[in-house]
Amino acid sequence: MTAAPMTATPMNSPILWIHGAALGPANPALVAWPGRPAVFVFDDALIAGSALSLKRLGFLYECLLELPVTIRRGDVASEVLAFAARHQADGVVTTAAVDPRFRQLGQAIAARVPLTVLPVEPFVAPEAGGPQPGDLGRFSRYWRRAEPLVWQRFKG
To answer: C or N terminus of the chain, fewer CB within 10 Å?
Structure first.
């Protein structure tokens, strides 16, 4: 799992950076800091590079409508930092992600404010020595590997 720098700095009033790798009410940041201002940023760089299909954007948007989150669009790090400043936050809390851009974005945010990255419990544990979710590139490839493990988990 690729993670941005963790901070040991205690926070009293952070904002939450919610991203596409943990969109749900069980997001560890939302659970750990209920009621704190939260932001999701549609990444202009990814959208412009056609990395996100219209279907995927619609899915993300529908998921976000179910969460207590402010939705923005633009440069992710800049928008998260502006949101933190607007809320006079003393840091940013987010959840770990396997997306390679996550590390870069986390470093950009951590250069300006303390950043805490919370671990996420994997949906299914990947096979030891096998490819990890981030190695597979696309969700469909990941799902082909994960689906049998999911069904084994629920047989019982």
So the answer is: C
